[in-house]
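Lab manual, section 2.4: Encoding a predicted structure.

Procedure: take the sequence of the chain (291 residues), apply the prediction step described in section 2.3, and record the output as structure tokens. A sample record is shown.
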Amino acid sequence: MAISSAVDPSVLHERREQRLILMLLAPALLVVVGLLIVPLCWLAWQSFRQDGGFTLAHYARFVSDDVYWRTFLQTFRIAFVVTVATLLLAYPVAYVAASASHRMSILILAMVILPFWTSVLVRSYAWLILLQRRGLVNSALDGMGLIDQPLILVNNELGTVIATTHILLPFMVLPLYAAMQKIPADLMMAGSSLGGSPAHVFWRVFLPLSLPGVLAGTVLVFVLALGFYITPELLGGGRTYMVSMLVSRNIELYSEWGAASSISVVLLLCVFGIFRLASMIIPFERIMGAR
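Recorded output:
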């Protein structure tokens, strides 16, 4: 008895659909491989190269050289402070935008997105002018009688934190707003109808439901702050030294591509570890969907 070789039409349709999806994804995959995967592989390879041979000397510096440790610690400290500051500033803004009328929400989000129209370099220079000894901030504080002498707000870590917080603030507001907008207003009304005060309902209902947005914004801002270069270079005045500046110095001053690559690889591994830790706290799908 002959065995029928006919194939189920649904299987053929599924195969054709899979081939079509691969064809549609092919250009994007080529771009990702060519502009991301290949450079990262080259970066990792360079970190093990010195004078044409294989070496671990670049990674050994992380154990023996205190400059590396101090730079990484300062970078993570600044990134942490900036993340906390942006969260404290962005949460009320996102809450008001999510709770307001449609027209008011559009206005608030437009004001949040407006700084994107100006480059980071221009905004950093603007803060450099505002925070200098005779800048607008010190002049305003002196005019109100709050200070007797100008505050030192630039060429230090404080100025770097202030400017970086302003630049990264939209990256915290938008994930928070996306998460808050999906919280049903009926839940807040139900909590109030059960006798809960507005503060109690907020802490027990609204805040837990907004945590995916909090985590998404926190991870995004923290990772972006780790790689900041222009702002700490301008407002740090040489006293604020971050990892990106260490990479730049190794290439510009010493032409040490291997040392710069090893620093970049270690920072990249730290970023992967942060994403892994975040996914363990809240699943990655829930963070991306903010639900």
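Check your result against the sample. The mean pLDDT is 86.
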